[in-house]
Amino acid sequence: MFRLLFRGIDRRKPCEILDAGSGRTSLSLILRMFPMGRVDAVVYPGDLRKINSIKAAVPAGRYGLIERDLCLGRMERHYDIAVAHLLLGEAAKFGNPFALLLDAVLALHIKQLVIIDFLEDPDVDFDVVLRHAQAHGYTVAHDCTIKRSEPFSGKRFVGWHYRGLLFALQE
Prior knowledge:
Number of domains: 1
CATH topology: Rossmann fold
Strand content: 35-45%
Strand order of the largest sheet: 3-2-1-4-5-7-6
Radius of gyration: 15 Å
Order of helices and strands: HEHEHEEHEHEE
CATH architecture: 3-Layer(aba) Sandwich
CATH superfamily: Vaccinia Virus protein VP39
Number of strands: 7
C-alpha cells in the first residue's frame, strides 16, 4: 500500500515526515521507504501499547517520539509528508470524534498526506474524508484499495480491505 501511494515521489531526497498516530509498523515502513527522511512519530499521550512497541522494535536515530493529542492545538512545525496509518478508526478510542481528528490532521502544515484505514471500519467514513480534504485545499493524487491475505478481526468489524489515499495540497 505504501509503495502504491508513494509512486512518483522521490523518496531518496531529505524530507520531514509526520507519522500521525504512529506505531511500530508505520514508523518502520516510513523509515525504510524514506532513507533520508526525518520522522516525528506522534502517539496519543500515555498510549503505552504503541510507545513500548516502538521503543522495542524501532531503533532510535532518525525519529523523535512525541506524545500528543492531535486534537488539542495545532502543531506549528511544517512537514513534507504526513501519514495517518489506521489513525482515524481509533479517534473514539481516545475520546475524539472522527471529524474532529480528521480536521486536526488536515489542518497540519503539510504538502502531502497519506490516509490508510480499513474500508470496513464503521468509524471511518471515506466520503467525509474526501469532502473535508477538499475543503482544506487538498486533491487526491492516488486512491487505492488492496485486499489483505487474512482478515483483521477488530472489536466492531472484520477488515479485509485497506483503502489508501494520497492527498496533495493545492498551491
